[in-house]
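Colleagues,

Please find the record for the two-part complex below.
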Amino acid sequence: MVNVKLLQEKRRSLHDFVQVGSSNSYLLVLSFAPLFALGIWKARQIALMQIGNLIVMLVLLAGALATWLYQRAERKLDQVDLNMREFQTLLLLFINRSIAFTKGIKFWFAPLLFFGISLAAYPALNRFWSPLWCIVALSLVFIFFEYSIWIMNDLRRVGELQRRKSEVERLLVEMNESK
Amino acid sequence: MKSARQDELEVNFVRIFDAYGPALRRLCGAYRRDLTERQDLLQEIALAVWTALPHFRGQASERTWVYRIAHNVAITFSASQKRRNGFEQSLDPIAHDQGTKDNSPRLMLTEAIQRLKPIDQHLALLYLEGLSGTEISEITGLSPGNIGVRLNRLKHRLATGLDRKETEGEPTSGSRR
């Protein structure tokens, strides 16, 4: 039969179904912010580096806050004792939110983050390369960065969420059919 | 040191699983073919019941509450397993149970249920567990009238499916529901 102690130690949950990242991913994001705060202080002679580090730190803080709010909403999925229709409706709502959140990363989080990193890195790169080559190099890295995020988020993660969404929608449509 | 509240929760939890365990095992057997996955699903249901138990205030009967949780978890679990396994794993023959002898009418009924749409499969399982239309309505969120219409249609469809199996020469024994 079921062992109560085993249940208390078991970690799997329904959240696996819609999980965007690890359950404390906002802490991981937040842990990098102090590094860039240190970078602001260290780069106090170079305004561009300071601004770059400041932008990165603010974006990381905003990202941590957004992730924390998202994971707070995820806890509503603990209402697994709702009736099937209500639970699937809640699940659908949450999946839509997950899709919007995941897709949004490449639009607001990644470009801002990369812009800050570029500003911070530019003065150092400019010592070795001309401004034009610095911009070309940073642009190429940015394109690669966005492409990687597109592969990881849009193709894999969003694709996965869209499949789950269609399953939930199909069940809800069947439930709403009167014939 | 465990509190009295914690003790009470554990006692209630064990009582619930003693009362509904066999039904939950049948449900898991209907949803998953693989024995390991069935055990996994049962544990997932147990975990969900354990998590939800402190918040249960008797808003619904204990029976409907347990079935709601079980079906919600089973649907989600099946969807997750389908992605992991890479192929459709809908309801599977109960005859795959270890130690179960081949029981043709039961197998035929399960196969007939497998051909239904997902929501009708849930309704069939709940009906076969002896739940009333009102209880099924509370579990699924469908209106009692809708449940009545669907169940009548289901019974007809299942009977037709079983009759067709008989005329095709499949052996059957025992009475049909």
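Confidence is low (pLDDT under 50) at residues 9-14 of chain A.

Comments are welcome before we finalize the supplementary table.
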